[in-house]
Amino acid sequence: MNQSRPTDPYGQASPGRWWTDSRLRPGLVITLGLGLVALLAPLIAPGDPAALGAAADRLLAPSFQHLLGTDLLGRDVLTRLVHGSRVSLLVGWVSVLVAVLLGTGVGLAAGMGPRWLDRLLMNTTDAFMAFPRIFLVLLLVSLTTPSLLLVMTVLGLTGWMSVARLVRAEALSLRERDFVAVAHGLGLSARKVAFYHVLPNLLPTVIVAATLRVGGAILAESFLSFLGLGAQEPVVSWGGMIQQGRDFLLEGWWLTTFPGVAIALTVLGYNLLGEGLRAKLDPRNRGEGRDG
Amino acid sequence: MISWLARRIAVSVLLVFILISAVFFIVRLAPGDPLDQIVEEEFGADSRDQMRHRLGLDEPLFRQYLKWLAASLQGDFGTSLRQQRSVGSIIGEALPATLLLTVTAYLLHLLLALGAALVSVDRSRRTLDQGIQAVGLTLYSLPAFWLGLMLIMLLSRKLGWFPSGGMHAPDARFMSGGAWFADLLHHLALPVITLALGSFMGTARYLRTSLAEVLGQDYILSARSRGLSERRVLFNHALRNALLPVITLLGLSLPFLLGGAVVVEVVFGWPGMGRVAIEAIWARDYPVIMGTTLVSALTVVAGSLLADILYRRVDPRVRFSSREGL
User: Fold this and answer.
1) What value of ipTM does the predicted structure carry?
2) Which of A119, A234, A243, B264 is deepest in the core (most CB within 10 A)?
């Protein structure tokens, strides 16, 4: 590929057309929009989302005063949804960041290091993968007092394996390329080659992998909060809101319905963004999906 | 083949052993005390100590570990601290329930995925394909526990078509065989739909790639040029080969299916392994935690091993190379 032409099959050189992509556009709109909502939550929905409402305001159906209704304690559901976005995005991003950093480190070491290291690291990776992640997460999260920090750490520490495999495979293919041979030939140390020559070329793969995993992390957090193992009152979380509405499925249908829609929309946004980015940045790994 | 198999099994056994040992120490070193659930407050410290001694929980940790290991190797997983029942019988009841749920859900999952993949390689159905893609990706983004709650809300509470949870009606034990089975299927429907709907899109995409690849092969061209109907080409020639990778996928899907089952079991009150495990974790019921951990790890490892062996049997192109261990 020596020149950027409109027919460029990888679309790398045509950022201007990102906006017309059927996945990137809705993905960007949703994720950027939600990011703004989370950042500006106190401005969009002023007031304390945990403050109790008046007795007359309890369990009101959606109306013009309360667009999405009120909960058992008379609190506005929309206000709580806006504030709850912060927990979802924070946990999603931080845990994925931990997982991706760890996975990239392990994958790079396995792919670029000596054979014995590769074997050791990949067998360890397989060991972690051989277990349903949710069991491990539940086990670790429920051992001490629940907190958001714990949830982020545990999701990060149990989510790196598939990234490591992906990065290793990519590194194994990159190390056979001419530019790596040249770098070695110039007398650079193995570590320098790995960090300054191979790692930058792994970035598109890593960025795509990270984006595709944010949705999964948000889903996991919402389930943990639903079980009461995530964010604790007075912090608002979407999963916790669903739990509170669970006993009023019919009488207070808005309590369970809207937080779920919010989670689904967020996850859909990140999945669309990730898939759009993959098609643009990393066309070879199109078969690789999100991990459970 | 034999040496490959031996190596593969040895690695698997080692994996399970390391994992289960790690869980043993993590669970016991974590805060929380199983006695909180068994001994009432008013019994005081004396009887707590007695109870602890009787259960062997006052011994040094490593000694407890060796004892547990020796007993487990003889197939004795101990007695639940919370319920006065053996771990074996608790798991013996929960495992079939989970298997019934996951296997049925996986069959539906495969059917949906196959349907979606067949539509997507048919060029005359572009609009339908795009619709399925959009719906599938949306379903894929839903929290499974919420999808379950929505189904309960609409199909169970509102319309009353399905029971909202559990595995049997309260009077199931008085039913005749046929009615009992119908009742079981009635309870099974919503959990299975929840588990299959939320997950089929991943497999559908995998199948589509595999099917598109097969359809580009020379033998498909040759089948078409012999004048075979498109239907015959698709089902008799292409599909068989396209389904090969599904075997590997089956092994990879196992951890995910067991994980999904946890979520669905919690929402629908399905008396399976996931619920048993969660309740045991809450109660710090050490023997039950170890038992469920061991069984799910063994299931997953055995599943991926089985998938590997099957794949090598049906696809002679895969060689038994020594690099495979990675």
Assistant:
1) 0.84
2) B264
